[in-house]
Design goal:
Elements lengths: L1 E6 L5 H14 L5 E6 L6 H6 L2 H5 L18 E7 L7 H7 L3 H6 L6 E8 L6 H14 L3 E3 L23 E3 L10 H22 L1
Parallel strand pairs: 1-2, 1-3, 3-4, 4-5, 4-6
Helix pairs in contact: 1-7
This protein binds flavin mononucleotide.
Flavin mononucleotide binds next to helix 1 and strand 4.
């Protein structure tokens, strides 16, 4: 059983979440888990102004995903930062290159799941997750979120990401906050949950 974790990260928050999602998926017996980034699409000069080139060095070793790789997986977990309440353009562009997979029904019946992050608590995490699900449904994927069985998403004693639609992290407006222990636990739960469902479907 093959699980792909495909994400974009500019400053490392989604990279950290992706690592934890992958670790959770790897806990399921028989799971082969691969971490993949989607290609960058912004010009170098823009990335330089955004301070992204320096930050990106920390995860530049993660191989880039190709569209052709997607059908080889039993389940795919997608990770994206919020951009104006939606997935980032890099992820959108990657998904917009999957038309041939859609035409062939290549992802029909595979498990699809999304995790995300934003700068602020109410800056669009849920809209990012839910609008991402639309693309997965067009591909005929079986959409899986983060069930309330992960009860720590309900805690209010500390600021935390996490929703029934998927694990999330709150990065802060300067990116100063890395995923908390609770957010990482949500990411790990989601990875394990998706892999366990994929294992049942693969039987
Ligand atoms: C162009 C742009 C648009 C963004 N839009 C939002 C937004 O709508 N809401 C929000 O809370 N954060 C927004 N952010 C902040 C990012 O979501 C945040 O930097 C990201 O989640 C950090 O994850 P990363 O380090 O993996 O890139 C935006 C950032 C950029 C650069």
């Amino acid at each position: 059983m093959k699980i792909l974790v495909v994400y974009y990260s500019m400053y490392g928050h989604l990279h950290r979440m992706a690592e934890e999602v992958a670790a959770g998926a790897a806990e399921v017996e028989g799971a082969q888990v691969l971490l993949r980034r989607v290609p960058e699409t912004l010009p170098q000069e823009v990335l330089t102004k955004m301070g992204a080139l320096e930050a990106g060095k920390a995860f530049s070793h993660v191989p880039l995903c190709t569209v052709e790789e997607l059908p080889t997986a039993d389940a795919i977990l997608f990770g994206t930062p919020t951009r104006f309440g939606n997935m980032c353009g890099q992820m959108r562009q990657f998904l917009d290159a999957t038309g041939s997979l859609w035409a062939a029904g290549a992802l029909v019946g595979k498990v699809g799941s999304v995790f995300a992050g934003s700068a602020t608590q109410h800056g669009g995490q849920e809209s990012t997750l839910l609008s991402f699900h639309i693309t997965l449904l067009h591909h005929g994927m079986v959409v899986v979120g983060l069930p309330y069985a992960f009860q720590e998403q309900m805690r209010i004693d500390e600021i935390t990401g996490g929703s029934p639609y998927g694990a999330t992290t709150i990065a802060g407006t300067k990116g100063e906050r890395m995923p908390s222990a609770n957010e990482l636990a949500g990411a790990r739960f989601q990875g394990r949950h998706v892999a366990s469902i994929a294992a049942k479907l693969a039987r």
